[in-house]
TrEMBL record:
Name of the protein in question: Phosphatidate cytidylyltransferase
GO molecular function: phosphatidate cytidylyltransferase activity
Protein family (similarity comment): Belongs to the CDS family.
Membrane association type: Multi-pass membrane protein
Compartments it resides in: Membrane
Origin organism lineage: Eukaryota, Metazoa, Ecdysozoa, Arthropoda, Crustacea
């Protein structure tokens, strides 16, 4: 009897192990172990995940049908590239608030595409609350990031006029934590037996998506507040690199660059990099001449509106630089000056362009590996010839982080305006106390006469 009982227990244990292993493996993915038999997907892959960038409008398909497929894709990609560039220029013309709003819309759409992949790949149709929980965590993350930094640092003058908003700012972190705890408890209560591994995998999936999308979009908006040039130039560099690499690769590409993206070539990589550096410097030189692009986005209490005019920072003013000795001697022989006048930001743009052309493409390679892991071609099909929104912004998010780090490390200086924003958040008696303390300090140091 004991032997039969042990055999039955062993059989049950093996069955449970098999079920748990089946939950850990993504249907349709490659099996790492040669001993593991391939699992058959119980449900067909949703059709939308296989369409990708190949979906074309009926009109374009009819008009371009005489062309070979390679050239037809090239034309469609070119048409929608110019449409996106035109829309981007229109948004810039409207102003920085329009850019911020567009960034939030792109963030939401990219999050939707990533979450939809997780939902379809893991075949979670029988389990409730996954999408609702994902969107709840998205709202919580945005409230945490934007509610504290942006509201307190940049919009405090506006919101300090409302008692309710002052209360929300004062208890912002507690409110954010409470919202996250609600989502956490909600997730635990939604757990179902035999689906634990899948549900925890999707819980992790949601948090990784938040890390990739929300954090980077937050940094993009922070960059805009330092001046639209810190957004427009890096974004344009990624676009230039992407377009020129595609052009060079299309016409001259012969040498494969990386296995993750078989269509990427060394010719495209090098051609795109050189084009990005040159055109990035030209674009930077032009934009440095307009205060609308270089001035920080700040709220003016006197004008009760956002102020886009300022005394430009030294990096946006022309400065004279001495040429290296060899070039200076050569310049003297030709009758030219031994110095060169240039905007310092143009020199900074070289660092930005090198990152966008050398490291930026690895954001695309990462996305390519991600898509190959789940056997999909594109994140979506919202942009014919390009794929999904995430397919266009995979490199932009990586670039946004670098630009923010670059500003904080090499550019940012303490701004009296930002300190004043903090002062406005204090109570009236605290502001008066700070005024008296500052006045006493200035008198004691002889800066202010008593």
């Amino acid at each position: 009897m004991n032997a039969e009982a042990e055999a039955e227990n062993e059989l049950r244990r093996r069955q449970l192990d098999t079920e748990e292993r089946a939950e850990q493996i993504v249907p349709g993915s490659e099996i790492d172990s040669d001993d593991d038999p391939p699992l058959q997907a119980t449900e067909p892959r949703p059709r939308h995940s296989l369409k990708g960038a190949e979906q074309e409008t009926t009109f374009l398909h009819t008009v371009l049908s005489p062309l070979p497929k390679r050239w037809r894709n090239w034309v469609i990609r070119g048409i929608f590239t110019w449409l996106m560039i035109g829309l981007f220029c229109l948004i810039i013309y409207v102003g920085p608030l329009a850019l911020m709003f567009t960034t939030l819309l792109v963030q939401v759409w990219c999050f939707k595409e990533i979450i939809n992949i997780g939902y379809s790949v893991y075949r979670m149709h029988g389990l409730s609350w996954f999408r609702s929980l994902s969107w709840w965590f998205l709202i919580t993350s945005n409230y945490f990031f934007y509610g504290e930094s942006l509201v307190a640092d940049y919009f405090s003058v506006i919101f300090s006029k409302s008692d309710i908003m002052r209360w929300l700012i004062a208890y912002h972190r507690f409110t954010s934590f409470t919202m996250y705890i609600v989502g956490f408890v909600w997730f635990v209560l939604s757990l179902k037996k035999r689906y634990y591994m899948r549900q925890f995998s999707l819980f992790a999936w949601t948090h990784v998506a938040l890390l990739i999308v929300v954090t980077q979009s937050y940094l993009i908006i922070i960059n805009i507040f330092h001046g639209m040039i810190w957004f427009i130039v890096p974004v344009s560099m990624i676009v230039i690199n992407d377009v020129m690499a595609y052009m060079f690769g299309f016409f001259f590409g012969k040498t494969p660059l990386i296995q993750l993206s078989p269509k990427k070539t060394w010719e495209g990589f090098i051609g795109g990099g050189i084009s990005t550096v040159v055109l990035g410097m030209v674009l930077s030189y032009v934009m440095c001449q307009y205060p609308f692009f270089v001035c920080p986005v700040e709220y003016s209490e006197s004008e009760d509106n956002f102020n886009y005019t300022c005394d430009p920072s030294p990096i946006f003013r022309p400065q004279e630089y001495s040429l290296p000795e060899t070039l200076a001697n050569l310049s003297a022989l030709l009758g030219w000056k031994k110095t060169i006048t240039m905007y310092p930001f143009v020199l900074h743009s070289v660092a930005l362009s090198l990152f966008s052309s050398v490291i930026g493409p690895f954001g695309g390679f990462f996305a390519s590996g991600f898509k190959r892991a789940f056997k999909i071609k594109d994140f979506g099909d919202v942009i014919p010839g390009h794929g999904g929104m995430m397919d266009r912004f995979d490199c932009q998010y990586l670039m946004a982080t670098f630009v923010n780090v670059y500003i904080m490390t090499f550019i940012l200086e303490t701004s009296p305006q930002k300190l004043l924003q903090k002062v406005y958040m204090l109570k009236p008696e605290q502001q008066l106390q700070l005024y008296n303390m500052l006045q006493d300090s200035l008198i004691a140091r002889g800066i202010l006469q008593p």
